[in-house]
Amino acid sequence: RAPNSTMGKHTKKVHITGKYGTRYGASLRKQIKKIEITQHAKYSCQFCGKDSVKRQAVGIWKCAACRKVMAGGGFTMKTPAAA
């Protein structure tokens, strides 16, 4: 890219789903945006109380502070049925 390019660097509306470009349709990208924001968020640990629980894999959540590994939902720490 040229240094004086007028192209923008950031996505304004789509945020995390900018990686999909114009593919898959707007409504599907909105659903994926909601899911990806929740799955990449940090949650509070029920053992130590710190906001340091992150998703390791589908349904596996790990606290970075106390190193506890917990089972949870696929995309969120707690599923609506378990809450």
Which features does this protein show?
alpha+beta; 4-stranded antiparallel beta sheet; 4 strands; 18% helix
Sum this structure up briefly.
The protein has 83 residues and is an alpha+beta fold.
**Secondary structure category:** alpha+beta
Question: Within the largest sheet, what's the order of strands?
Answer: 1-2-3-4
Please count the beta strands (DSSP E, at least 2 residues each): 4
Number of helices: 1
- N-to-C CA distance: 49 Å
Q: What is the approximate shape?
A: elongated
Query: Would you list the SSEs in sequence order as H and E?
Result: HEEEE
Strand content: 15-25%
Helix content: 10-25%
Overall pLDDT level: 90
- Give Rg in angstroms: 17 Å
Question: pLDDT under 50 segments (min length 5)?
Answer: none
Largest sheet: 4 strands, antiparallel
